[in-house]
């Protein structure tokens, strides 16, 4: 029975929802009418139980559903902004069969709106509690047709395959072969893939219009997700250099001379300015981090910054070129003439000049040739487990290699 209070809540929710759709259109997270229609239709607050309506309809707010004992988020209702972006990347059409990896209920309901009566929205989660919660929320919101399955998605959901779209909503480090096996010929996988410490939501299609094993993409977007659990979980190495300084590294085999690097950080610092504009930091970061396997993420403490040993950029992590006992990383300074910024390099160690020169050359190359959104073309080539090798523009994964080319 709908009470007067429920009616008020429904009306307020509908008005907040309409405002959220307008905001997402303004932000260009939504460009397709189909996605706008889905976001306008699904009552998100019924998937954000116990949260204020304003939080449920804040376009950029993720809501944590479950944390582990250390307080790390294991499951969240993703922000509508990134959900809309990924649905746009997926290009879902009526009648499609879509698998969502990671369940909150809400995104699966959006998918149900997009595929319509003839299609199928299937959601899989590794966590029984999350599956139960998603099921309850979907039923309460009237999406009984959505199937929610409990399983480790590393094996996909073979009993309900094939899928025209697989949308992954947990941070993945690799692409399990089951996803490729269960993808229809002209299918697409949208996956937040972590590469050398950076995550991008990448929309992959099979090369050759579906005839080849290789996946190709010309759409990638900045995003952040809770990490994949289960057999596909991957922990990056955190290499301690000295108090307040660490390297975050993807590659399990790469060796570092940590004693020499610890000495280098306390040695004189070389500063080199590139003469190139510093802009679009997320695109630049992707270019730098994936350029060479010698590029790893450098993380430094505020303490070392305050001591004048490192620049502020290291506190969030910055791609650093490490060669023997020397390293270089990027910085920036205001450019009075343009009103923007100029990129530069800070380097330490016996080969500071060489690493700084190599880094500055990359900064200049990016600024002159690739400084725009979406300049990377990303591909994924499945390979026998453990055989992929990192090289220039190639990030090695366990089950394949991610290759970058820049236009
Ligand atoms: C960000 S949440 C999903 C949000 C959801 N799609 C929504 O509608 O907002 C990520 C989910 O991925 C799940 N997950 C993590 N690893 C998984 C795995 N290997 N297989 C299936 N689900 C997994 C987590 O339990 C968590 O619930």
TrEMBL record:
InterPro entries: Methyltran_FxLD, PCMT, SAM-dependent_MTases_sf. Its EC number is 2.1.1.77. GO terms for cellular component: cytoplasm. It is found in: Cytoplasm. Coiled coil: none annotated. Keywords: Cytoplasm, Methyltransferase, S-adenosyl-L-methionine, Transferase. It comes from the Bacteria. One of its GO terms (molecular function) is protein-L-isoaspartate (D-aspartate) O-methyltransferase activity. Its main location: cytoplasm. GO terms for biological process: methylation. This is Protein-L-isoaspartate O-methyltransferase.
């Amino acid at each position: 029975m709908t009470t007067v209070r429920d009616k008020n809540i429904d009306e307020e929710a509908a008005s907040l929802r309409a405002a959220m759709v307008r905001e997402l259109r303004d932000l260009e997270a939504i460009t397709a009418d189909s996605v706008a229609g889905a976001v306008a239709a699904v009552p998100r607050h019924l998937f954000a139980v116990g949260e204020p309506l304003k939080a449920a309809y804040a376009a950029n707010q993720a809501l944590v559903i479950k944390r582990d004992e250390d307080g790390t988020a294991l499951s969240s209702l993703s922000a509508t902004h990134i959900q809309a972006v990924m649905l746009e990347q997926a290009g879902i059409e009526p009648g499609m069969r879509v698998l969502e990896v990671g369940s909150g209920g809400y995104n699966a309901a959006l998918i149900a709106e997009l595929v319509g009566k003839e299609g199928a929205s299937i959601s899989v989660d590794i966590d029984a509690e999350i599956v139960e919660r998603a099921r309850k929320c979907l039923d309460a919101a009237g999406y009984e047709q959505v199937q929610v399955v409990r399983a480790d998605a590393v094996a996909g959901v073979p009993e309900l395959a094939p899928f025209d779209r697989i949308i992954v909503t947990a941070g993945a480090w690799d692409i399990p072969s089951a996803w490729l096996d269960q993808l229809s010929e002209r299918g697409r996988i949208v996956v937040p893939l972590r590469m050398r410490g950076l995550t991008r939501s990448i929309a992959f299609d099979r090369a050759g219009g579906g005839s080849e094993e290789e996946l190709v993409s010309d759409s990638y977007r900045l995003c952040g997700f809770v990490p994949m659990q289960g057999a596909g979980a991957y922990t990056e190495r955190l290499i301690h250099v000295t108090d307040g300084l660490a390297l975050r590294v993807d590659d399990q085999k790469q060796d570092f001379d940590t004693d020499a690097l610890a000495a280098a950080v306390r040695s004189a610092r070389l500063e080199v300015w590139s003469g190139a504009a510093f802009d679009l930091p997320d695109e630049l970061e992707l270019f730098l981090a994936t350029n060479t396997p010698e590029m790893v993420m450098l993380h430094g403490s505020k303490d070392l910054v305050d001591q004048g040993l490192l620049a502020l950029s290291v506190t969030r992590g910055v791609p650093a070129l490490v060669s023997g006992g020397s390293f270089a990383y990027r910085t920036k300074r205001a450019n009075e003439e343009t009103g923007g910024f100029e990129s530069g390099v800070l380097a330490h160690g016996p080969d500071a000049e060489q690493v700084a020169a190599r880094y500055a050359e990359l900064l200049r190359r990016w600024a002159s040739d690739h400084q725009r959104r979406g300049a990377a073309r990303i591909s994924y080539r499945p390979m026998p487990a453990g055989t992929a090798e990192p090289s220039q523009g190639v990030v090695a994964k366990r089950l394949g290699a991610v290759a970058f080319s820049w236009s």
